[in-house]
């Protein structure tokens, strides 16, 4: 089969690789129907994180189950399934606590699973999925083609935006600021609207992303950044700041802006992968009582809650995909996202 | 009158100072019935924070109202009142949001208030209290002498321990670890028990403090610290860590221990004044989804909730006072706490 590898910064190739084979008993082989490129995939692409040797890449996909191991009970051949951006057992204490990203048995796509077998990455034609019964969620039936992009967001971006909102404590009556207008930030706007936020202030200076933010439920837009952005937020929030700020970027600057945009006693929900390891100023947090909570999103735990609304069309997060390419043109997909010509690119094998 | 001044590290004096006078209209003069020494008072005492010139010190006191300004409506001459460790209006947006420590009109004892008048510090015979109607809470009637220590804890330590527990999300079914066995840590144990925690693990290696922790509701004790302490907590919590960790010290080491003692998706509630400005490792928080929330405790907002239980004897936080001295011997009080001969010293004029 073919799958995507990164060889070096800027060097993405769709190459012949070995077909996956069932090996651990509880695994499944999924034929990928759609995959996509994540903002975090751009880090090795841009050389921000090193690429020591060529390796498989991609962690968001949906598809159809072709084979299952002898221990698989819940998932069946022929199921259309959503895979979270990691694999997990959904039976250990961390999974049951709602944090399947800290699964005691799980792992990451493109790496060896805990049983020593290779788990393919997501941007390929087929993927061996460890812990198939835990990791995969089957849809009620085979979806229409138009529904596929929306379902695909449950692999990562929609669940991650939802996690930001949940971590920040978004709810009715709250004023929410969203820092970051990438696909995750936009999904955080949508998640905040879904959770009943009163006001949603999206920070964005790109017309196309502003339009999507509005469509997803943003009630106000702020184009300023940094100090000016904080000043504008304060102006819009009675001088004190917002109840909740969702940090969906991951830089020192964006986290700083988030912390300073929250009112005393407010909360920052963060899902931006910390880039360059920024540290949080504890003294500032002590003085203002602004809490910080979030991290790598346990999207698997959210699929059951979000899927019914995506399935019946009430929730349409797939609008974040503004470009679709054949998977063989995956290098172009990375280029389009790197150059910010696309918010998020969907790939079909 | 007489009041306490710090002249330099280790140099505490009870000296003649000018009598306070009403000056802003909304203020009151309170005759102090009991005051005490705070762990944070030891910082300038130990030279951890600088003392550039002699100044008034102390911020925890209860007393009887002797005079009120013409604008004061709620508080009356003769009331027995509890003062929080800061003054606040209880009318601005931050006060109404529950964070009176960020009052837009308030200030700190021993400094000029926002109207340019000096607010006496707490370890003195009398105190001018700005925003008397906001800051002070009157008890239902004149308390028995035996009740005074318990009421005094509502000025700071009990409210601060409660804030740690609230910030950490303590509630029924939770396993809570308390880092720090000072008066605040012990009050955090008591607050956790009051809020219905299932298990409360107190980290302490001092027999007297262990005994008080047990009396306050600790179900387990851990004597180990640092790496060994974290290992012991993991052992006691099914290998993953506690739901909630309350950080009541304020050093880099204690915060690190707290973060590593929480389970994935757990929460650190912190009230230890950050000593030396430790920063939080955002990447660790990202990976584990452990949230951090807390800070300078808005104890004024908690007095109404806690006072009835203290008043009727159900809640007895005053047990943290294990030494009582006349206020004229305040220098000995500092020495006893500095040398850890006392958990917390109560002073009577």
SS element count, helices of chain A:
12
Helix/sheet category of chain A: alpha/beta
CATH architecture of the largest domain in chain A: Alpha-Beta Complex
Q: Name the helix and strand elements of chain A from N-terminus to C-terminus, one letter apiece.
A: EEEHEEEHEHEHHEHEHEHEHEEHEHEHE
CATH class of the largest domain in chain A: Alpha Beta
CATH superfamily of the largest domain in chain A: Medium-chain alcohol dehydrogenases, catalytic domain
Mean pLDDT of chain A: 96
What does the radius of gyration of chain A come to?
20 Å
Largest sheet geometry of chain A: 7 strands, mixed
How far is the N terminus from the C terminus of chain A? 11 Å
* Low-confidence segments of chain A: none
CATH fold descriptor of the largest domain in chain A: Quinone Oxidoreductase, Chain A, domain 1
Largest interface, with counts of residues having CB < 8 Å to the other chain, equals: A-B, 40 and 39 residues
Indicate the multimeric state. homodimer
Tell me the total number of β-strands of chain A: 17
DSSP helix fraction of chain A: 25-40%
Shape of chain A: globular
Cofactor (chains A, B): Zn(2+)
Family (chains A, B): Belongs to the zinc-containing alcohol dehydrogenase family.
Pfam families (chains A, B): ADH_N, ADH_zinc_N
Protein name (chains A, B): IMP dehydrogenase
